[in-house]
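Build the 3D complex.
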Amino acid sequence: MKWVSTRGQAAPLATSEAIAAGLASDGGLLVPERWPKLAIENSWAELPFAELAQKILLAFLSTSADLAKICQQAFTFPVPLRALSDGTQVLELFHGPTCAFKDFGARFLALNMKTLPQSGGSPLVLVATSGDTGGAVAAAFCEFTAIPVVILFPVGGVSKRQEAQLTSWGDQVRALAVHGNFDDCQRLVKEAFASHWWTKQFQLISANSINIGRLLPQMVYFASASLQYQQRFGRAPGFVVPSGNLGDGMAALWARQLGFPIRQVIFAHNANRAVPDYLLTGSWSPQPTIHTLANAMDVSAPSNFERLRHLFPKLEELRKVVSAVSVSDAQIRATIQSSSADPVCPHTATALYVRHQLQDRDWVVVATAHPAKFETIVEPLIRDSLAVPAHLQTVIDRPTKCYPIGASLAEVASALK
Ligand SMILES: *Cc1c(COP(=O)(O)O)cnc(C)c1O
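Done.
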């Protein structure tokens, strides 16, 4: 199985090379050269998550012995598809170590480090985060590897509990609070990957949602939930996915591409509305980032957009499968307030809001983070306190350290000394 660039100007890569590279050499994103044919069976609905992961990912990775072990180690927490008290079907992706869906990709990526081709420099993970990626990557790399991690996050752009998950890992993880927004953080990471000095000094590993090492395992929960839903209700569901960089949304579409029973996908965005506008008008014009209550989705120009265009080059074809909605902070607040029986995080609230607007049945709302990560937003709205999962409490209680820097690559380099 080979990976090619969305821009078509790069030599095909094997999966391990594609994970190591992150981006294609022509600046495009890596996509499968051909989609593997899976002989999907309805009985897969009952498989343990790690076993289903193995069946699906084997089509993409050649090392089957390693893969079994990697999946058993990575996917150790439940992934329930359950009904809220009003009957809404929700896929809960927040039962991993850092209470957000980023744990799936980060853990799989970290466990794949041993299988990657070696290069000259010493390995270093460099990752920009809008809130949840950094914590998941730090947790996974500390649990499974000795590779140092550098996290860039926008100062003031993450919740207090998210910040604790970025800054409390001791020497293996250096958290840099960048004076700027998430797009600045992403730009600095891109600059480092393009820089001669950085790439000579280090074997840089990209852990952002463009890395197929993160996208591949995310397909598995869409596959699993679609089979379970079909088994329970006899029909294929659509998914409403809280979306920022479109990693999760692409994973849903890739699972659909593999043949899993996924009818449609709706991207629920916050006020950053480049994708909803594109679907409406056909023109791509990202605007400056807007800060919202759903901070992990504060992305003005989603980096996976190129993959979306590549999968559906024709706008009419895209519109048959995908729609996108922008949800305001006021709508997020109202949704959290009205869901006090089953509290949701602000990101999940965007998808729940969209679900409430739909008349037809057969939708699954994707719950991307635990509400207790965003207690300062959620608790006043539901007028109640949220129970904190034990593994989140452990992180909150640890000492933290972070380094404030300006938004320049030179400052990133000097913060590493
Ligand atoms: C990252 C994140 C999102 C957005 O996911 P993308 O893959 O970037 O679209 C949504 N909700 C939460 C809680 C997140 O951490």
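The chain is about 40% helix and 15% strand.
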